[in-house]
Amino acid sequence: MDGVDVPDSLVRRAREGDDEAFNQLVRAYRKRILGTIARLIGRPEDVEDVAQEVFVRLYFSLEQLRSPGVFEPWLYRLTVNAAYDYLRRQKRRPETRMADLSEQQMLLADAAEGARVSGERDRRARLRDFVQSLLAEVSEDDRILLTLKEIEGLSLKELQQIYGASENALKVRLFRARRRVLRAYRRAQALERKEVASR
Predict the structure, then answer these.
(1) Whole-number Cα distances in Å, 174 to 50, 64, 169
(2) For the chain, how many structural domains are there in total?
(3) Same structural domain, 91 and 1
(4) Which long-range contacts (CB under 8 A, 24 or more apart) does 10-14 make?
């Protein structure tokens, strides 16, 4: 994964309490963190709130960072933890269902476009929704791990720093997570064939 190009000196200054340096870090990483959170939580309207929580946590814990060289994976860990906390809170709200989220995403996408989407964009939206529906069939752990690896493009080495697990352990987890998504895909295909046959 291509990292954001920020000098170690900027991280050091932020760690030492330089507010302007911290603000520069936030500006440098904000877009990427927003994108990551959007893919992890599946609720566009809450992305800003979760990102705000990530940067608040960053501000109050930056002095604990061991060295500027591990800043990026450390920030990803904060992001993943904030996403987990958000998802746990949502589980305690029974009115939130995956079907509702998909509907809200489509409405927001339509409003943001302000016009009818093109055929290509429509195809991509359907594909994205289909991928999200498959990921919704597996556990949060599987979904977040696969999102970081397959969508965010993190390497195994970067995942090791985030999860604190060995490369072999991560390979096993990824293999099992992919297999569970494949099963969900086969179930979806079987259901679609059944619906077509019953028409």
Answers:
(1) 26, 30, 9
(2) 2
(3) yes
(4) 11/65, 11/68, 11/71, 12/68, 14/62
How far from 116 is each of 101, 127, 150, 162, CA to CA, in Å?
21, 17, 29, 40
- How many C-beta atoms lie closer than 10 Å to residue 58's C-beta? 22
13 and 86 within one domain: yes
Query: 67: phi > 0 → left, psi -120 to 50 → alpha, else beta; which?
Result: beta
Residue 134 sits in the same domain as residue 90? no
pLDDT in tens, 181-196: 888 878 877 777 777 7
Question: Do residues 6 and 84 share a domain?
Answer: yes
| pTM to 2 decimal places | 0.61
**Is residue 10 in a domain?**
yes
pLDDT at 40 over 50: yes
173 and 84 in one domain? no
Please give the residue that has the higher pLDDT: either 8 or 112: 8
Domain containing residue 181: 127-199
Q: Among 73, 77, 74, 84, which Cα is nearest to 41's?
A: 84
pLDDT band of 117, cuts 50, 70, 90: very low
